[in-house]
Amino acid sequence: MATANGTASADTLFSPSLISPNVVSALPEGYTIRPLQRADFSSGFLDVLRVLTHVGDVTQQEFEKRFDEMKAGAGGYHILVILDAEQKIVGTGALIVERKLYVQLLHRGLSKCVC
To answer: Which pTM value belongs to this model?
Structure first.
């Protein structure tokens, strides 16, 4: 059975409890899903993104600074990673929550960078 893993901490972009059990159950056997973590720079996160787009030469310090900026953004960024049975990052996706000032302060989610 697929699982969600990770615990909410300073090194996790958001709480894993926000990941729907429906999403977890849709994963193949042996795969897990969790929020992006600060350590994912060293775990091949950017290599997965390179399959989709040009990433550039991002240093670990730059990665961690951007991670901190996104984490401080009041829950607007929900970047997920999918890991295989060996705990290697094999996929990623992002849900960006926009907070509107119209339509009765609507919240709208946009999926981005799914690879």
So the answer is: 0.80
